[in-house]
Amino acid sequence: MSDTLTLFRTFVRTVEAGSFTAVAREFNSSQPTISRQIAILEDHLGCLLFLRSTRALTLTDDGRSFYEHATRTLEALAEAESAVGRRKGKPSGTLKLACSGVFGRLHIVPRLPRFRARYPDVQVALHMSDGFMDLVEEGIDLAIRVGETKDAALITRRVGQSRRVVVATRDYVERHGAPSHPSELASHDCVVYDRLLTGATWSFSVSGDVLRVPVAGPVHVNNTEAVRAAVLEGLGIGYVPAWHFVDGEIESGRLVVLLRDYEAPLQPIDAVFPSRRHLAPKVRAAIDYFASEFDLDPRLRIADH
Predict the structure, then answer these.
(1) Buried-most residue among 41, 123, 173, 181 (CB within 10 A)?
(2) How many Cβ atoms are within 10 Å of 152's Cβ, its own excluded?
(3) What are the DSSP E strand ranges found in 34-180?
(4) All domains of the chain in start order, with CATH
(5) In this predicted model, what pLDDT tens digit does every residue of 79-119 receive, in sequence order?
């Protein structure tokens, strides 16, 4: 029975990940071993589950049908185990956690010591990247993401909010003045973040509507940490998530918050995980932990929470 369940799990994860290599990496195995397990399952069932090519795996009709049955079988087993408490143990194992580089450096890594102290049986494998990361392909248990998650196949839980502020150094304001309305940004040097989804356009909430203002400046950068650094060097006005400023730059007066009457639209901070019916205790513990931690930080707290 256990050998059959192993084959079922290997098959289901191969369908979800789309490659033997990804599943081998997730299971700490090898690609030939995963391929052989699928072949054994096909021999056992007497049918072909995948059409194999050098570039892709494609489910056969039998494979699609069997995937539905195998998934239900594994879910039923998980429910049975949960009902008698076998899966209700304390969090343990390796948590594969993903986040962006700057958010990880400023708000994930500093909170890991307390997480480890609370859950000493959980090891953390942290993947920090500003590029797209396929959670299923990479075998990631949990990601903390700033911004909307577009993939409907993933599950999200709101754990915080990101508020953007318009800032400049006090010296810049003394030399160039402070804009009193977003439209006045056109006459200022703005630090432009090239990877902003709206391009060189900053958005503001005005009387319930969204006002979009084109901006320009002599300095363009490709990550938000560079926006922060350029602003602190006095190169212009920045449009930056407030959570970038963890060293008292605003509180000390080194930076001035501009256009306080014109809030930028809030961005969600979500815990994102693959669509699975049962969360491992380590994943649930991490989600709850970061939600409670972010709630204590006014830069990350959900508004009106």
Answers:
(1) 41
(2) 7
(3) 50-52, 57-59, 93-99, 122-128, 142-146, 154-162, 164-169
(4) 2-83 (1.10.10.10), 93-156+269-295 (3.40.190.10), 164-258 (3.40.190.10)
(5) 776 665 544 568 988 999 999 999 999 999 999 999 999 99
